[in-house]
Amino acid sequence: MKLGLLSGVSKEALESCFEMARFESPLVGSRLVIQEIPVTVHCTNCAAVRQIDFIQLFCCPVCGVPVSEIVSDKELEVVALEILE
Ligand SMILES: [Zn+2]
Fold first, then answer.
1. What is the distance of C-alpha 27 from the center of its chain?
2. What pTM was computed for the model?
3. How far is CA 56 from the centre of its chain?
4. Domains of the chain: which residue ranges?
5. pLDDT for 17-67, tens place per residue?
6. CB atoms within 10 A of CB 12
7. Burial 30-46 (b: 16+ CB within 10 A, else e)
8. Neighbours of ion ligand 1 (CB under 5 A)
9. Distance between CA atoms of residues 41 and 60, nearest Å
10. How far apart are the C-alpha atoms of 5 and 2, rounded to whole Å?
């Protein structure tokens, strides 16, 4: 799964819920792989997409100008399902 940092879902909570859901179900033995997606923004000053390391500061990490256009952050999607027999 892809999990955006601003999706409102914590990785730990998702893993914990998956553990409970697969218990005594056909999914016993399955594994959930979570890829955390960083927040990226478009900086109009640099005219470039930048990755924000600290979500408390919505400023371009290169020029320091505040940014308001979020490019990615809220993903919560299943990107692959692999079944081994
Ligand atoms: Zn910038």
1. 23
2. 0.67
3. 16
4. 2-77
5. 999 999 889 888 899 999 988 889 999 999 999 998 877 888 999 999 998
6. 9
7. eeeeeeebebbbebeee
8. 43, 45-46, 60, 62-63
9. 8
10. 10
Residue 62 Cα to ligand 1 middle (Å)? 5
Question: 8 C-alpha to center of ligand 1: Å?
Answer: 26
Structural tokens at position 55: 């979500």
- Between the CA of 15 and the centroid of ligand 1 the distance, in Å, is 35
Q: How far is the CA of 51 from the centre of ligand 1 (A)?
A: 10
Residue 1, pLDDT above cutoff 80: yes
- Report CA-CA distances (Å) from 68 to 18, 55, 56, 63: 34, 12, 13, 14
List helix spans (H) across the chain.
11-22
Count of residues in the chain? 85
Distance CA 10, CA 18 (A): 12
